[in-house]
Amino acid sequence: MVDKPIQDYYPEETAVCMGCGRNNAHGLHIQTFWDGEEGVARFTPQPHHTGYPGLVYGGLLASLIDCHSIGTATAATYQAEGRAPGSEPQIGYVTGTMTVTYLKPTPIDAALTLRSRVTELTPRKAIVVTTLYAGDQEAVRGEVIAVRMKLT
Amino acid sequence: MVDKPIQDYYPEETAVCMGCGRNNAHGLHIQTFWDGEEGVARFTPQPHHTGYPGLVYGGLLASLIDCHSIGTATAATYQAEGRAPGSEPQIGYVTGTMTVTYLKPTPIDAALTLRSRVTELTPRKAIVVTTLYAGDQEAVRGEVIAVRMKLT
After folding, report:
1. Residue A68: what are its φ and ψ, rounded to 5°?
2. Nearest-CA distance from B13 to chain A in Å?
3. Cβ separation of B94 and A102 shorter than 8 Å?
4. How far is C-alpha B56 from the chain's CA centre?
5. Is A19 close to B57, i.e. CB distance below 8 A?
6. DSSP states of A15-60 as a string?
7. Cα–Cα distance between B131 and B116 in angstroms, integer?
8. Inter-chain touch B59–A100, beta carbons under 8 Å
9. Which of A149, B42, B50, B127 has a CB 3.0–4.6 Å from the CB of B120, allowing a cystine?
Protein backbone atom coordinates (compact mmCIF):
# COMPACT_ATOMS: atom_id res chain seq x y z
CA MET A 1 0.00 0.00 0.00
CA VAL A 2 1.46 3.35 -1.04
CA ASP A 3 0.21 6.48 0.72
CA LYS A 4 0.38 8.80 -2.26
CA PRO A 5 0.61 8.41 -6.05
CA ILE A 6 3.72 6.50 -7.10
CA GLN A 7 4.45 9.35 -9.52
CA ASP A 8 5.09 11.61 -6.51
CA TYR A 9 8.15 9.46 -5.80
CA TYR A 10 9.61 9.85 -9.29
CA PRO A 11 12.86 11.85 -9.25
CA GLU A 12 12.34 15.60 -9.55
CA GLU A 13 14.32 15.94 -12.78
CA THR A 14 12.46 13.17 -14.63
CA ALA A 15 8.96 14.17 -13.50
CA VAL A 16 8.26 16.09 -16.73
CA CYS A 17 6.25 13.46 -18.59
CA MET A 18 3.27 14.77 -20.56
CA GLY A 19 1.22 11.88 -19.21
CA CYS A 20 2.17 11.69 -15.55
CA GLY A 21 4.84 14.26 -14.71
CA ARG A 22 3.96 16.55 -11.82
CA ASN A 23 6.36 19.10 -13.33
CA ASN A 24 4.72 19.29 -16.78
CA ALA A 25 2.35 22.28 -16.74
CA HIS A 26 0.58 21.06 -19.91
CA GLY A 27 0.40 17.40 -18.89
CA LEU A 28 -2.40 15.01 -17.95
CA HIS A 29 -1.08 14.43 -14.40
CA ILE A 30 -2.04 10.77 -14.35
CA GLN A 31 -1.74 9.36 -10.82
CA THR A 32 -1.34 5.71 -9.87
CA PHE A 33 -2.44 4.57 -6.42
CA TRP A 34 -0.99 1.18 -5.50
CA ASP A 35 -3.12 -0.78 -3.03
CA GLY A 36 -0.78 -3.73 -2.58
CA GLU A 37 -2.38 -5.81 -5.32
CA GLU A 38 -3.30 -3.47 -8.10
CA GLY A 39 -2.71 0.04 -9.34
CA VAL A 40 -5.78 2.27 -9.48
CA ALA A 41 -6.08 5.54 -11.40
CA ARG A 42 -9.03 7.84 -11.82
CA PHE A 43 -9.40 10.41 -14.55
CA THR A 44 -12.06 12.92 -15.54
CA PRO A 45 -11.90 13.74 -19.26
CA GLN A 46 -12.06 17.38 -20.31
CA PRO A 47 -14.23 18.55 -23.24
CA HIS A 48 -11.23 18.84 -25.58
CA HIS A 49 -10.28 15.19 -24.90
CA THR A 50 -12.90 14.19 -27.46
CA GLY A 51 -12.49 11.78 -30.37
CA TYR A 52 -15.75 11.42 -32.21
CA PRO A 53 -18.27 13.85 -30.71
CA GLY A 54 -19.34 12.72 -27.24
CA LEU A 55 -16.61 10.09 -26.92
CA VAL A 56 -13.13 10.10 -25.39
CA TYR A 57 -10.20 10.17 -27.81
CA GLY A 58 -8.52 6.77 -28.18
CA GLY A 59 -5.04 8.29 -28.05
CA LEU A 60 -5.83 9.79 -24.67
CA LEU A 61 -7.06 6.41 -23.41
CA ALA A 62 -3.81 4.86 -24.66
CA SER A 63 -1.88 7.57 -22.79
CA LEU A 64 -3.73 6.75 -19.55
CA ILE A 65 -2.91 3.07 -19.98
CA ASP A 66 0.73 3.83 -20.81
CA CYS A 67 1.62 5.92 -17.76
CA HIS A 68 -0.59 4.02 -15.36
CA SER A 69 0.97 0.70 -16.41
CA ILE A 70 4.47 2.07 -15.88
CA GLY A 71 3.40 3.44 -12.49
CA THR A 72 1.89 0.09 -11.52
CA ALA A 73 5.01 -1.81 -12.60
CA THR A 74 7.17 0.58 -10.58
CA ALA A 75 5.07 0.33 -7.42
CA ALA A 76 4.80 -3.45 -7.68
CA THR A 77 8.55 -3.80 -8.08
CA TYR A 78 9.31 -1.72 -4.98
CA GLN A 79 6.94 -4.00 -3.09
CA ALA A 80 8.43 -7.18 -4.60
CA GLU A 81 11.88 -6.03 -3.51
CA GLY A 82 10.66 -5.15 -0.03
CA ARG A 83 11.68 -1.52 -0.43
CA ALA A 84 10.04 1.82 0.24
CA PRO A 85 8.83 3.62 -2.90
CA GLY A 86 11.40 6.11 -4.15
CA SER A 87 14.26 4.47 -2.23
CA GLU A 88 17.66 4.23 -3.94
CA PRO A 89 18.48 2.91 -6.40
CA GLN A 90 15.33 4.28 -8.05
CA ILE A 91 13.19 1.82 -9.97
CA GLY A 92 12.14 2.93 -13.44
CA TYR A 93 10.53 1.41 -16.51
CA VAL A 94 9.99 2.35 -20.12
CA THR A 95 7.25 1.03 -22.37
CA GLY A 96 8.47 -1.64 -24.77
CA THR A 97 5.16 -2.65 -26.34
CA MET A 98 1.62 -1.47 -25.65
CA THR A 99 -1.55 -3.11 -26.94
CA VAL A 100 -4.86 -1.32 -26.50
CA THR A 101 -8.20 -2.94 -27.30
CA TYR A 102 -11.22 -0.64 -27.50
CA LEU A 103 -14.18 -2.77 -26.48
CA LYS A 104 -16.81 -0.06 -26.36
CA PRO A 105 -17.00 3.68 -26.99
CA THR A 106 -16.02 5.66 -23.87
CA PRO A 107 -18.44 8.55 -23.15
CA ILE A 108 -16.69 11.89 -22.58
CA ASP A 109 -18.81 12.59 -19.51
CA ALA A 110 -18.00 9.31 -17.75
CA ALA A 111 -15.72 9.04 -14.72
CA LEU A 112 -12.86 6.77 -15.76
CA THR A 113 -11.18 4.20 -13.54
CA LEU A 114 -8.17 2.13 -14.54
CA ARG A 115 -7.24 -1.03 -12.66
CA SER A 116 -3.89 -2.62 -13.47
CA ARG A 117 -2.15 -5.78 -12.34
CA VAL A 118 1.34 -7.11 -12.92
CA THR A 119 1.00 -10.59 -14.41
CA GLU A 120 4.71 -11.26 -14.87
CA LEU A 121 7.71 -9.73 -13.16
CA THR A 122 11.34 -10.51 -13.95
CA PRO A 123 14.52 -8.52 -13.32
CA ARG A 124 14.28 -7.19 -16.88
CA LYS A 125 10.60 -6.57 -17.47
CA ALA A 126 7.06 -6.46 -16.15
CA ILE A 127 3.86 -7.31 -17.98
CA VAL A 128 0.94 -5.16 -16.88
CA VAL A 129 -2.69 -5.76 -17.81
CA THR A 130 -5.25 -3.00 -17.40
CA THR A 131 -8.98 -2.67 -17.52
CA LEU A 132 -10.38 0.81 -18.06
CA TYR A 133 -13.92 1.39 -16.85
CA ALA A 134 -16.25 4.17 -17.96
CA GLY A 135 -18.48 4.38 -14.90
CA ASP A 136 -18.87 0.68 -14.15
CA GLN A 137 -18.69 -0.40 -17.79
CA GLU A 138 -15.56 -2.15 -19.04
CA ALA A 139 -14.57 -0.06 -22.05
CA VAL A 140 -10.89 -0.61 -22.86
CA ARG A 141 -8.23 -3.22 -22.15
CA GLY A 142 -4.50 -2.70 -22.20
CA GLU A 143 -1.36 -4.78 -22.04
CA VAL A 144 2.02 -3.17 -21.57
CA ILE A 145 5.39 -4.84 -21.62
CA ALA A 146 7.45 -2.54 -19.41
CA VAL A 147 11.23 -2.75 -19.69
CA ARG A 148 13.28 -1.95 -16.63
CA MET A 149 15.85 0.80 -16.92
CA LYS A 150 18.57 2.18 -14.74
CA LEU A 151 17.64 5.60 -13.37
CA THR A 152 20.50 6.10 -10.97
CA MET B 1 -3.18 10.64 -54.71
CA VAL B 2 -5.13 13.06 -52.51
CA ASP B 3 -4.42 16.77 -52.91
CA LYS B 4 -4.89 17.71 -49.24
CA PRO B 5 -4.94 15.89 -45.91
CA ILE B 6 -7.67 13.26 -45.75
CA GLN B 7 -8.76 14.83 -42.46
CA ASP B 8 -9.84 17.93 -44.42
CA TYR B 9 -12.55 15.75 -45.97
CA TYR B 10 -13.94 14.54 -42.64
CA PRO B 11 -17.48 15.87 -42.03
CA GLU B 12 -17.55 19.26 -40.31
CA GLU B 13 -19.44 18.01 -37.26
CA THR B 14 -17.12 15.08 -36.55
CA ALA B 15 -13.85 16.96 -37.08
CA VAL B 16 -13.37 17.61 -33.36
CA CYS B 17 -10.90 14.82 -32.56
CA MET B 18 -8.11 15.74 -30.15
CA GLY B 19 -5.67 13.95 -32.43
CA CYS B 20 -6.69 15.02 -35.92
CA GLY B 21 -9.77 17.25 -35.80
CA ARG B 22 -9.35 20.57 -37.58
CA ASN B 23 -12.07 21.95 -35.28
CA ASN B 24 -10.36 21.06 -31.97
CA ALA B 25 -8.51 24.18 -30.79
CA HIS B 26 -6.47 22.16 -28.28
CA GLY B 27 -5.73 19.23 -30.61
CA LEU B 28 -2.63 17.85 -32.29
CA HIS B 29 -3.95 18.46 -35.83
CA ILE B 30 -2.42 15.29 -37.25
CA GLN B 31 -2.62 15.31 -41.05
CA THR B 32 -2.47 12.28 -43.34
CA PHE B 33 -1.32 12.73 -46.92
CA TRP B 34 -2.22 9.76 -49.12
CA ASP B 35 0.11 9.25 -52.08
CA GLY B 36 -1.76 6.38 -53.70
CA GLU B 37 0.23 3.68 -51.91
CA GLU B 38 0.85 4.90 -48.41
CA GLY B 39 -0.24 7.53 -45.95
CA VAL B 40 2.45 10.00 -44.86
CA ALA B 41 2.28 12.29 -41.84
CA ARG B 42 4.86 14.69 -40.49
CA PHE B 43 4.90 16.05 -36.96
CA THR B 44 7.17 18.36 -35.01
CA PRO B 45 6.99 17.69 -31.26
CA GLN B 46 6.61 20.63 -28.92
CA PRO B 47 8.66 20.93 -25.70
CA HIS B 48 5.73 19.83 -23.52
CA HIS B 49 5.34 16.61 -25.56
CA THR B 50 8.16 15.15 -23.48
CA GLY B 51 8.22 11.79 -21.71
CA TYR B 52 11.56 11.26 -20.04
CA PRO B 53 13.61 14.44 -20.44
CA GLY B 54 14.75 14.89 -24.04
CA LEU B 55 12.45 12.19 -25.42
CA VAL B 56 8.97 12.23 -26.94
CA TYR B 57 6.14 10.90 -24.76
CA GLY B 58 5.02 7.40 -25.78
CA GLY B 59 1.35 8.28 -25.43
CA LEU B 60 1.80 11.07 -27.96
CA LEU B 61 3.50 8.67 -30.37
CA ALA B 62 0.57 6.26 -29.91
CA SER B 63 -1.82 9.13 -30.68
CA LEU B 64 0.03 9.92 -33.91
CA ILE B 65 -0.19 6.27 -34.94
CA ASP B 66 -3.87 6.09 -34.01
CA CYS B 67 -5.19 9.00 -36.05
CA HIS B 68 -2.77 8.53 -38.94
CA SER B 69 -3.75 4.87 -39.27
CA ILE B 70 -7.43 5.77 -39.36
CA GLY B 71 -6.69 8.47 -41.92
CA THR B 72 -4.72 6.03 -44.05
CA ALA B 73 -7.47 3.40 -43.88
CA THR B 74 -10.03 6.00 -44.90
CA ALA B 75 -8.03 7.31 -47.87
CA ALA B 76 -7.15 3.81 -49.04
CA THR B 77 -10.79 2.75 -48.93
CA TYR B 78 -11.96 5.70 -51.03
CA GLN B 79 -9.32 4.71 -53.57
CA ALA B 80 -10.24 1.01 -53.44
CA GLU B 81 -13.86 1.94 -54.11
CA GLY B 82 -12.90 4.26 -56.96
CA ARG B 83 -14.44 7.24 -55.25
CA ALA B 84 -13.39 10.80 -54.54
CA PRO B 85 -12.39 11.43 -50.90
CA GLY B 86 -15.28 12.82 -48.89
CA SER B 87 -17.91 11.62 -51.38
CA GLU B 88 -21.15 10.21 -50.01
CA PRO B 89 -21.68 7.93 -48.25
CA GLN B 90 -18.75 9.07 -46.12
CA ILE B 91 -16.19 6.42 -45.20
CA GLY B 92 -15.23 6.29 -41.53
CA TYR B 93 -13.30 3.97 -39.23
CA VAL B 94 -12.80 3.55 -35.51
CA THR B 95 -9.82 1.92 -33.84
CA GLY B 96 -10.52 -1.62 -32.68
CA THR B 97 -7.05 -2.62 -31.49
CA MET B 98 -3.77 -0.74 -31.58
CA THR B 99 -0.34 -2.23 -30.90
CA VAL B 100 2.63 0.09 -30.54
CA THR B 101 6.21 -1.16 -30.30
CA TYR B 102 8.83 1.32 -29.15
CA LEU B 103 12.06 0.24 -30.82
CA LYS B 104 14.22 3.18 -29.80
CA PRO B 105 13.85 6.38 -27.79
CA THR B 106 12.48 9.22 -29.95
CA PRO B 107 14.38 12.50 -29.45
CA ILE B 108 12.11 15.47 -28.75
CA ASP B 109 13.99 17.64 -31.26
CA ALA B 110 13.64 15.18 -34.16
CA ALA B 111 11.35 15.73 -37.12
CA LEU B 112 8.92 12.82 -37.12
CA THR B 113 7.60 11.05 -40.21
CA LEU B 114 4.98 8.31 -40.18
CA ARG B 115 4.50 5.99 -43.14
CA SER B 116 1.46 3.73 -43.10
CA ARG B 117 0.21 0.99 -45.40
CA VAL B 118 -3.00 -0.97 -45.49
CA THR B 119 -2.08 -4.66 -45.42
CA GLU B 120 -5.61 -6.03 -45.37
CA LEU B 121 -8.88 -4.46 -46.47
CA THR B 122 -12.31 -6.05 -46.16
CA PRO B 123 -15.79 -4.48 -46.08
CA ARG B 124 -15.64 -4.58 -42.28
CA LYS B 125 -12.08 -3.67 -41.37
CA ALA B 126 -8.65 -2.51 -42.44
CA ILE B 127 -5.31 -3.48 -40.97
CA VAL B 128 -2.79 -0.64 -41.08
CA VAL B 129 0.91 -0.99 -40.32
CA THR B 130 3.00 2.08 -39.58
CA THR B 131 6.64 2.93 -39.22
CA LEU B 132 7.48 6.12 -37.35
CA TYR B 133 10.86 7.65 -38.13
CA ALA B 134 12.74 10.15 -35.98
CA GLY B 135 14.79 11.86 -38.66
CA ASP B 136 15.77 8.83 -40.76
CA GLN B 137 15.86 6.41 -37.80
CA GLU B 138 13.10 3.86 -37.40
CA ALA B 139 11.88 4.47 -33.84
CA VAL B 140 8.35 3.06 -33.45
CA ARG B 141 6.12 0.54 -35.18
CA GLY B 142 2.36 0.42 -35.04
CA GLU B 143 -0.41 -1.91 -36.08
CA VAL B 144 -4.02 -0.79 -36.02
CA ILE B 145 -7.09 -2.86 -36.71
CA ALA B 146 -9.54 -0.25 -37.96
CA VAL B 147 -13.24 -1.13 -37.88
CA ARG B 148 -15.49 0.43 -40.48
CA MET B 149 -18.43 2.42 -39.25
CA LYS B 150 -21.42 4.08 -40.83
CA LEU B 151 -21.09 7.86 -40.77
CA THR B 152 -24.05 8.75 -42.93
Report:
1. -70, -35
2. 8
3. yes
4. 17
5. yes
6. TT-TTT-TT-TTS-----EE-SS-EEEEE---GGGBSSTTBB-HHH
7. 7
8. no
9. B127
Instruction: Kindly give the interhelix angle for A58-80 and B58-80, rounded to the nearest 10 degrees.
Output: 140
DSSP 3-state percent helix, strand, coil across chain B (nearest 5):
20, 40, 40
Q: Tell me the ipTM for this assembly.
A: 0.96
Q: How far is CA B95 from the centre of its chain?
A: 11
Q: Are B112 and B134 in contact (CB under 8 A)?
A: yes
Q: Residues A34, A74: contact at Cβ < 8 Å?
A: no
Rg of chain A taking only CA atoms, in angstroms: 15
| pTM > 0.95 | yes
Q: Are B106 and B55 in contact (CB under 8 A)?
A: yes
- For the cut 80, the answer to whether the pLDDT of residue A1 exceeds it is no
* Cβ contact A114:A130 at 8 Å: yes
B62 in reach of chain A (CB within 8 A)? yes
Contacts of A37 (CB under 8 A, 6+ apart): A117
Name the CA dihedral angle for A26, B134, A11, A32, rounded to a multiple of 10 degrees.
Answer: 60
Peptide bond into B89 cis (omega under 30): yes
Q: Which residues of A touch B96 (CB under 8 A)?
A: 101-102
Q: Distance between CA B31 and CA B33 in Å, rounded? A: 7
Q: Of A17, A67, A100, which is closest to B98 when you measure between CB atoms?
A: A100
Summarize pLDDT for A62-106 with one digit per residue, the tens.
999 999 999 999 999 999 999 999 999 999 999 999 999 999 999
Which of A16, A53, A95 is opposite residue B50, by nearest beta carbon?
A: A16
